[in-house]
Amino acid sequence: MNHYRHTRGGYTIIEVIIVLTVSSALFISALVTYNQQNRRTQFTESVNTFAQNIQDVLNDVETGFYPTTNGFSCSVSGTGAPTINTTVSANQGTNTDCIFVGRAIQFAPNASSSAANKSKMDIYTVVGRRAVAGSDQPVTSITEAQPHALSELSNLIEHASLVSGVQINAVKRADTNGNISGLAIVSTVSGGSAINTGLNSRASLAVVTGNTTNTSSATFINRVAALNATSVTRASKGIRICLQEQGSNREAVIELATGSSQTIVNVKIDTPCP
Fold first, then answer.
1. Is residue 240 part of a domain?
2. Of 17, 58, 123, 140, which is least packed with CB atoms within 10 Å of its CB?
């Protein structure tokens, strides 16, 4: 007598295990791909936003935008640099001894004291003498202006940060690849050379010496005060800001270069710093 095996609908336990295993593998693969793509997007957005913050600072100087209307007085005495008095609230236009010179950016301020600071930049407003020391003649150079970074009032210092684990590795001069701690964007006199300063023309770059690993905020401010024609000349071929995502090898470079009519900000994603 023959016995027939009757087939019923459904899957065996082994078949179910195989399906679950394959499904899990596909899910994990899709999740990994999604996370990688999401990190790539976050990295790109972080770098581009940081570059836009720098572009905004450049634009402020190009247009002569002054970030505050009162809160302090600025005066000069003898041949010295501007003196800031935070106890006197002077309306805009009444600080007749001083002019708006530009802005200064310190990258990774005080990075040696905190790893988190490697993702930050501090932005200072820079003022200077209106007249050459000992005369009534308007200043025509950074040296004559004796620049001063306004650090006396915390609300005059702007801050911006990279996000998504992106940090500043270094800031370098493009001509020598030498490290610097930051840069200044200073106004220039119409028709003059890059070493001039004033209120009625384009902005030029100047390097602030030091590096991003051990330059304190106080040291940076002192070095802004030492800006001169040589500082601008050193930045004439551009500045590179080197970025890296922590926990990976992803890198990016923000380049600042002086063009024929303006300072250009260029972003290169997934590019190692030269």
1. yes
2. 17
The DSSP code sequence of 138-191 is BP-SHHHH--EE--SSGGG-EEEE--TTEEEEEEEETTT--B-SEEEEEE--TT
Q: Up-side HSE of residue 185: CA atoms within 13 Å toward CB? A: 29
Q: How many CA atoms lie within 13 A of 20 on its CB side?
A: 7
Nearest to 153 by CA among 95, 222, 88, 198: 88
- Residue 74: inside a domain, yes or no? no
- Establish if 61 belongs to a structural domain: no
Radius of gyration of the chain (CA): 27
- With the CA atoms of 22, 23, 27 and 28 taken in that order, what torsion angle do they form, in degrees rounded to the nearest 10? -40
Length of the chain counted residue by residue: 274
Q: Which domain holds residue 246?
A: 99-269
Could you report the per-residue pLDDT of 55-81, keeping only the tens digit for each? 999 988 888 887 777 788 999 988 989
Contact between residue 73 and residue 84 where contact means Cβ atoms under 8 Å apart: yes
Q: Domain count for the chain, please give it.
A: 1
Query: Low-confidence residues of the chain, pLDDT below 50?
Result: 1, 4-6, 189-200
Residue 63 included in any domain: no
